[in-house]
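Entry for the shared binder. Reason: the reviewer on the internal report wants the predicted structure included alongside the sequence.
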Amino acid sequence: MRIGAYYYAWYSGQWQWLRKTKRASDPPILGQYSNDVYGDVVNEHMRMAKDAGIDFLAISWDPSSSYGHVIDAAKRNGMKVTALYESLSRATGEYLTVSKKSHPYVLRDLESISEEFDEECWLRIDGKPVLIIYVSRNYEAPDDVFGEARKRIGDIYLVGDEVFWGSSPDPNRCLVFDALTSYNWYQPQRFFPGSGKETCDSFLENIRKFLGGCSLKRPYWPVAMPGYDDSSVRPEANHLPIPRLDGYLLRRSLQDAAAMNPDVVCVTSFCEWYEDTQVEPAQSYGNLYLDILKEFKHEHPGTTG
């Protein structure tokens, strides 16, 4: 099976992103790489990812980010990439929805992303360029906007972030996409609050139960997470963290993913430090999470490239 990981191109010095997170005193082993756009850090990320058995990176897409530089580094290092289209930040200021009036903006963005589809490093499945749509479940009339996208830019292998807590995904919505996924399963009421294994186990058990009740009409790409903690960047939300437990959650979520025999497993994330879901090495835990992925890939080699 392929392993993909979500990648964030936060290289702009004006973000000062790490200072806002719980890792302010526990930075990446590469340091605060905010001023490095073209150089050693992004290349080292590619090397780390490949060595860990990650087959592709899904780059958070925003035209103001260093997205293009990451693609250049991927080409230099033989890494496959796709884009995670950030639906909510790219909509027209509407909270947690992408209505029909936002569709022209979405189509403009997708046409811009499609300019990269001919790159040799772009991930393809069944000959089609892959594109992941963040929270596609929040789109009004997804068949309209994505149908029009296919007319304008050709056939795309669209992965919809349709599967999340609540009711089983609408079969008609599922058919709009080529595959389905869940970017992130975090929701505070879905696990036993605490700091030990019972917290992780209750979280994973609830995911298994929910998926068992879903009737999905497309292949599902399960997600594996090392943990979650956004308490420093969203203190007003008072979100309970999901502990890492020295790799326990990542190992268990990878086991659950493999049990579904999927074509692709998505890891949230390579470097999303805001929500502390990163597997990128930090000073406190070193290469632990990349080593876990490497071991998993060795046990489940499957398809690569």
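Summary line for the report: The chain is about 30% helix and 15% strand.
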